[in-house]
Design a protein that fits this description.
alpha/beta, eight-stranded mixed sheet, six-stranded parallel sheet, 17 helices
Amino acid sequence: MKVIYLHQYFNTPKMSGGTRSYEMARRLVASGHEVSIITTWRKETDQKTWFLTDESGIKVYWLPVIYSNRMNYAARIKAFLHFAWSSAYKAASLDGDIIFATSTPLTIALPAIYASWRKQIPMVFEVRDMWPSVPIALGAIRNPLLVKVSIWLEKIAYKHSAHIVALAPGMREDIIAQGISADKVSVIPNGCDLDVFSQIHSTPLPRDVYPWLGTRKLVLCAGTVGKVHGIDYLVKLAQQVKLFDPEVRFVVIGDGGEWEKVRSLAIENGVFEKNFFMLPALPKYDLVLWLHSATIILALITNLPILYKDAVQNKFFDALAVGKPIACNFDGFQSQVAKEYDIGLIIDPLNPDVAAKQLLSVLYDTQWLDGVPERSRILAEGRFNRDHLATQLEGILLDVVAKHKLKN
């Protein structure tokens, strides 16, 4: 099977950010399939047009399109449309049996639909976030015409897809509620990459490098520093924890449009580089060292139900892979799993003083902390095992291709 895989923000483990597409694609390659990724190169480069690399047997076609979470929404939409236009022709030019497109952004559906129609091959659509509901709720899309166009594109994407993959059960329910047949929608959540996180690729460890950390308790928050994640909440949490225990260290690792705002807020509240530290985004291989060093990992989301009810953050699955507890300030899919398996807790999303006491109650609960790795491994090796999830995806793609061939 030849898969044309569209993902605007594809990352390898050498890059910062989620690697779901890389992990799925390399497993498809290992199973004997040919995978061509169509994506963007988001950093400065001398390349002016498409260029090709081989990533663990995956053919990756990169188009230079500058993008970051620091860009305003108008600039982001411009980047979305530029890639959608260029990737439509690139996808249509490649040899393939199936189009597999993963959102966000929702505009990824445009080149997928075009290439599927032009090549007369089926399309499978993966939904990572409920667009356009999320950007509309955040106020990122306000223009009435853009709202209508976005909702129309969502419906067209679902209608044109031979199958839809959702990352959480709630997403599946929302898609079915729009009139899509239940048989057409499957759930394949994010997964744990035990082979990556079980290894420490370099030394020294962070605790040996940073004197301000040493043997102190470490509360780690890694990922995009954007409006969706409400990292300013973490500053207030650090301020409250400092009143009870000034030795606990909070570390933010990432980048995004709210970086400077969070830094300024930390300075104003007297926690910056005292018990609250900020580091730039790291490649996954380097981030592993910090995850292993953490006492607890934080997953934060702005207090909007549309954002948190189906949250499937990479940091949750990374925490499982390294056997670390997770603290969420929302009650959604991943936090409910954490509660069910007793590997995490939900802290108060509105009252940092209450959340601080909740966090401190587990930071020094040695018996509970010692039991988390074993309970996490049950999930990491079972329900969220990436190998099993990739096999599930492979089965869906093969089934769609087989049914298409029977019809034609």
